[in-house]
Amino acid sequence: MELLMAILIGVLFTAAVYLILSRSILKIIIGTGLLSHGAHLLILTMGGLGGSAPPVLSDGVTDFADPLPQALILTAIVISFGVTAFILVLAYRAYAVHKTDDMNQLKGNDEHD
Amino acid sequence: MINLLLFPIILPFFFAILLLFFKEKIRTQRILTLIGVVVSLASSLVLLWTVKTEGIQAITLGSWPAPFGISMVSDMLSALLVTTTLLLTLFIVIYSFTSIGEERERYFYYPAILFMVTGVNGAFTTGDIFNMFVFFEVLLIASYILIVLGGTKKQLRESLKYILVNVISSALFVITVAYLYSVVGTLNMADISVKISEVNQPGIITVIAVLFLIVFGIKGSIFPLYFWLPGSYAAPPIPVLALFGALLTKVGIYAIMRTYTLFFIHNTGFTHEILMILSILTIIAGCIGALAYFDLKQIIIYNIVIAVGVILFGASQMNEAGMSGAVFYLIHDMLIKGALFLLIGVIIYITGTSNLRKMGGLMKTHAPLGWFYLIAAFGLAGIPPLSGFIGKLLIVQGAFEAGNIWSGIIVLASSLVVLLSVMRIFIYAFWGESKVALPKTNRKTYNRLMAPALVLVVLTIVYGIGTEWLLPFMTDATDVLLQPSIYIDAVLK
Amino acid sequence: MKTNDVILQTTTKLVFFIIFLFSIHIFFAGHYTPGGGFVGGLLTTGAIILLLLAFDLKTVQKALPFNFTIMTGIGLLLALGTASGSIFFNVPFFTHAFDDFTLPLFGVTSLHTAMIFDAGVFLVVVGSAITIIQSIGGDS
Q1: Which of A17, B421, B430, C102 has a CA positioned 20 to 30 A from the CA of residue B382?
Q2: How far is B66 from chain A (nearest CA, A)?
Q3: What are phi and psi of C112, to 5 degrees?
Q4: What is the pLDDT of residue C140?
Q5: Which of C32, C38, C136 lies nearest to residue A92, judging by beta carbons?
């Protein structure tokens, strides 16, 4: 199971890097989304996939999942949700002002202001 | 009052929330912001004194026992940094009243500053590695708002890159924390330190150490990860630039110092060697940049990079002199960078340009500005008895004690380059004849902009002269950094 | 462009309340079972976005005359206030208190201060998400 997860995370990271290196802003944003998904899955895997019962203490349950990685993922998801929403708004504004979503044309230097 | 150490975090947060209710009332916003920062500053001074008299303050949120809940720890280093942060924020906020413009004030400028201060103070205070990530995000999201606020073409373009770099580094942070958790099985920083000592830092921990260096190096702009800094920092207006330049990179430096003195201390031959080499390269890269530009903002921005290198070089020596030099220089750099950015803000306001080639002869019309700029410039370069001197002296002494003669000499030589780069501004802007007619400026506005900048310069002078008096505080900070057991005992009591 | 979306609008009027009630259920279920303020808030946001899709921005604003920025502020204040309550009892920040109370209609109910915190989270999520949607949608 860990191996499968590792491959999945690797695929996610690969796709994320590919998308982030592209020129369109929207693709880059999707790439950052994939990157954070990969990171979240990595936390889950790194915390250990064992444990069959939910981490709620009740009688007779000994083999429960580690609750900490789940709490971390929830926090990280909320944060990446907020940041992604913010970049989307920003990309939209940048597109409206610059009339382009091509990062090559958004390079800019001091002479072009 | 066991919650005292949280006040510098909660109070700015509380006032930031209050400000959300007064979107259109700019006067109310200004007054509330001022009250908020002053009250937080007062609480942080009380905290500083408490840490001095009673030792490290630690609390674990939610009444959980120590390694399980989120610990907040205020040792001397973090108390000093928190106090300096709030002090700087006070001056920058006062400066903003006149310079930032009503349009920005109406769109949540002050709440964003206060949220950012919440994040910065939280990152300085937290004793939990994942919580540090959360506070990093708080300060980053607030900084995203600040950097794009105003929405000029350049800001939109640069902020996109700034955000992308930080999103990627945040993802790396999460990944690194995941690796660390899988090896040591805990997130509490004191507990991590204990667990790493128990297993005696195997190779995988060293890998994690390097990953942490990359993560914090992006935030703290070390070589070769500083590439995003000059472009992004030049986009926002001066008060925001001052805030970023003085505070944000310092959070990255603090995080490196904390992790490299608390966690990764068993294989210093590798990890700290890398840190040292990178910091020397950072200094050199910063020096090249500082000399290459004819733009006021860029010159000072590259000086941030140099300072990052100097501080980390001091920290990487892992001896008493180097470490206390790093702490001295860290606080000094926050104050002096704030002062310098505010001063060049005034220069830009007077001349209407940030291009050195287009200015000149300001000494005739604005002599006090010139002299105070000169003092700040000397302070930055470390001319005794000004504030930069003692820090650099200790850092170089530390380097010589550790046997790194050549790199010590490079640090010394960098002071000369720093001096040259800031003197160039002085020569071009203040000497000679004015090349173009100055735009008409309001004397009253000028005075209002000068006031906070001058007080800040005076503060740095006091910091330089009062070194003797500050020494006990610095010694306390250094002791905790060099002896992790003090920190661990205070948290896991 | 004029489209005929009678079906969407009629269904939305019905479905909105179902989603909203479900989000309230999820919110209260939150402490011992899956759910809570964040998920509840997102569901409510989803319901409002459905309204926005079916009708236009102005109509929805008239139907829900809230200032969503203020709502975010109130939510943050609630959350921070709950957490800071512990300062007055000199126990660590975020310490939460709970007890069983006998309420009319509900019988013995376990009440937590964590629920007030979650209510704050609920308001923050709805407020900030709708603010974002409005700022993108308001322009075109």
Answers
A1: B430
A2: 15
A3: -125, 150
A4: 52
A5: C136
Which of C45, C76, C121, C132 is most worth mutating to test chain A (most A CB atoms within 10 A of its CB)?
C132
d(CA C9, CA C35): 29
- For the record, the structure tokens of B484 come out as 């992790």
Residue B26 lies in a domain: no
Q: Is B173 helix (H, G, I), strand (E, B) or coil?
A: helix
How high does pLDDT run on average in chain B?
A: 89
List chain B residues with CB under 8 Å of A43. 174, 177-178, 181
Mean local confidence (pLDDT), A9-21:
95
CB pair distance less than 8 Å for C70 and B63:
no
Residue range C85-108, pLDDT digits in tens: 888 888 888 887 777 777 777 777
Tell me the nearest-neighbour CA distance from A30 into chain B, angstroms: 12
Chain A residues touching B177 at Cβ < 8 A: 43, 72
Mind telling me how many Å the CA of C56 is from chain A's nearest CA? 19
Of all residues in chain A, the one with the smallest CA distance to B234 is: A110
Pick the CATH number of A2-49+65-103 from 3.40.30.10, 2.60.40.10, 3.40.470.10, 1.10.287.3510: 1.10.287.3510
Of B133, B148, B179, the CB nearest to A46: B179
pLDDT digits (tens, 9 = 90+) for C37-62: 888 999 999 999 998 888 878 888 88
pLDDT at site A38: 94
Chain B residue with minimal CA distance to A85?
B141
Residue B293 domain-assigned? yes
B247 contact partners, CB below 8 Å, separation of at least 6: B85, B88, B116, B120, B334
Show the domain range for C131. Answer: 6-137
pLDDT digits (tens, 9 = 90+) for B335-372: 999 999 999 899 888 888 888 888 878 888 888 888 99
What ipTM does this complex have? 0.92
- pLDDT score, position A112: 47
Taking CA–CA distances from A13, the nearest residue in chain B reads B171
CA dist B402 and B399 (Å) reads: 5
Query: A-chain residues within 8 Å CB-CB of C38?
Result: 74, 78
Closest CA to B356 of B423, B447, B442, B285: B423
**Enclosing domain of residue B315:** 269-472
A11–chain B Cβ distance below 8 A for any pair = no
Is C123 a domain residue? yes
Q: How many domains does chain B have?
A: 1
Minimal Cβ distance to C132: which of A56, A74, A85: A85
Q: How many residues does chain A have?
A: 113
Answer whether residue B289 is part of any domain.
yes
Q: Which residues in chain B show pLDDT less than 50?
A: none
Query: B367-376: string of b/e by CB count within 10 Å (b at 16+)?
Result: eebbebbebb
Residue B130 domain-assigned (yes or no): no
- C-beta atoms of B178 and A106 within 8 A: no
- Report CA-CA distances (Å) from A49 to A42, A43, A113, B184, C110: 11, 10, 52, 16, 33
Helix-helix angle B320-351:B76-99, to 10 degrees: 0
Half-sphere exposure of B236 (CA within 13 A, CB side): 27
Query: Which residues in chain A have Cβ-Cβ distances shorter than 8 Å to B168?
Result: 20, 32, 35
pLDDT at C108: 77
How many residue pairs from chains A and C have C-beta atoms closer than 8 A? 14
Per the structure, the count of domains in chain C is: 1
Give the model's pLDDT for residue B100: 84
Look at residue C97 and tell me if it is in a domain.
yes
Contact C129 A85 (CB under 8 A): yes
